[in-house]
Amino acid sequence: MNRGRKRPVSKVQSAQPAKATQADKSKSYPVTESIELLPFLIKSISGAGRNVIKSILAHGQVSVNGKSTTAYNMQLQPGDTITVSKERPQEKPPMEGLSIMFEDEHIIVVKKEAGLLSVSSDSGQENEVTAYRQLMAHVRLENAKNRIFIVHRLDRDTSGVMMFAKSEAVQQQLQNSWQDTVQERIYVALVEGAVKKEKGTITSWLKESKTLKMYSSFHANDGLHAVTHYKVLRTSKSFSLLEVQLETGRKNQIRVHMEDIGHPVVGDKKYGARTRIIGRLGLHARVLAFTHPITGKLVRFETDIPKLFLKPFQAPEQS
Description:
- By secondary structure, the chain is an alpha+beta fold.
- 17% of the residues lie in helices and 31% in strands.
- It has seven helices and 17 strands.
- The longest helix has 10 residues, at 131-140.
């Protein structure tokens, strides 16, 4: 992955002069002897001092055979072509509430912070900040035709691991085989009350009300089948920290199922919570493991439990 740099300037052929606009921005130098890069640049670039050349190199303005480098001691060989750009590569803007964990030509895996929308809301403004819009801008810095495609979503107030596709074909492949492709989808949930059963499974059929709130039906086939497994990681008189594994991935599934067992997710007023001890929803997508849609290899991405989720177990409880 080559974040923070635009694509290396292609090699300029001596027999075919580059277009004037390109020539104005870069210049190429043929290598005729075995030499390290920095001495070669000092020798080749007239009128520039050592510190200026080191700065040009440090800012990614030098390419060796079309590949950008900052390695001053790279060993050059006869036949190599060095291209020096007069402009610094375009810096990719910092992302808001988002960091890239993995990227290749087919997918992007990110860690999303609580408070950031995955995609625009129905009533969202045109310039609303979302994971989708930021990643679209990210891939288009390399090529204006690049796009990303939504594979799955996290609620605005849920943090954790998400994946996007970089082509419609990969998106469709992932969505059509989601149940088979995803090997692990593990969350941590900070919930209200002491969960007495060390582990358990919650099964229901989820439906959506006219007010867009999901709820459980316990009548077979009356809605979308949802299965949630949990185990207790920590517990106190007032709170429990659970590891939650999804067997199915329905809208608001964990939030509904936690309310069903009488232990709503902290901060989740919509589904019965009475506390906001950590100032956010107590739900984090910690692990996503899946079969890569192109390579067929199992890939696994894991994040730490947010420190805020441990806060209720560190402070002494009020009697």
